[in-house]
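Blinded run. Sample ID left blank on purpose so nobody reads anything into the name before looking at the predicted structure. Input follows.
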Amino acid sequence: MIAAVFTGKERDGETGLDYFESRYFSSAQGRFTSPDAMIMKKEWLADPQRWNHYAYVRDNPLRYVDPNGEDLVIYMYEGKDLTEEQRKYLRANIKQIQAAISDKFKKAGVNKVEFRDVRQLTDKQVAAIRANSPAGVATLNFVNQSFAGTSLGGAKGATDAPISVVSLKNAFEGSLINPAATDDATKTFRLGEVAGHELGHAVGFESNAFINYVTAGTAEFFRSNLMDEHQGVPTRPKYFDTGSDRNKRVIEEVNRVGDNTPRKQ
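Blinded prediction complete.
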């Protein structure tokens, strides 16, 4: 009964089952009537509750729930090491950056993306997100250049899920090939690309770690997949590989579970 009462899902009067878009839930049994199609991800191995593909929200409906039906919820951080100039730029251009990120996920098939201020969460909620990596929830941490300890969230690395970290300093400075970003449009484009890539890690998209540097400049495969690694400073828009079986399963799961933010304790 908990799933129907707290989520507001539609109940089928004839079968007594609750309709959760892709599956039916039996409140009498306290489980779904068919298994989750999402195959085990490596980060779930330490979490036995993830092994049961018939369970509702990790068998913990008092902690996790989908009250509003959002699909991917991204909590935004401003790193403590941001300069005042970076902070001013970020606040003036955050809507454009968010729009670029949303566009990439929507093109991949994620139905809805919502951005929220991380200050809405308690420390315990943030800790729960970091410890459990709930599907449908990610965090995005904008920093100057520090990935360890000095930023809000204390991220350990640029791709540590579920904390996605984007360095403004790295994105703005450019490289030997690409000059530093001096205008807001270039800065916003670069941050949208990098943030999309890091959030792709957080939700579990397949990452291509190897790039053939001889063909990377010409092969369409390397130009188009946002999850290619070692890309350096972005120079053209890229999108998620929606042909990947793993990515399809991730998208299906995100659309199914919705907002999985831990409850306040």
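Unblinding after everyone has recorded impressions. DSSP finds seven helices and eight strands in the chain.
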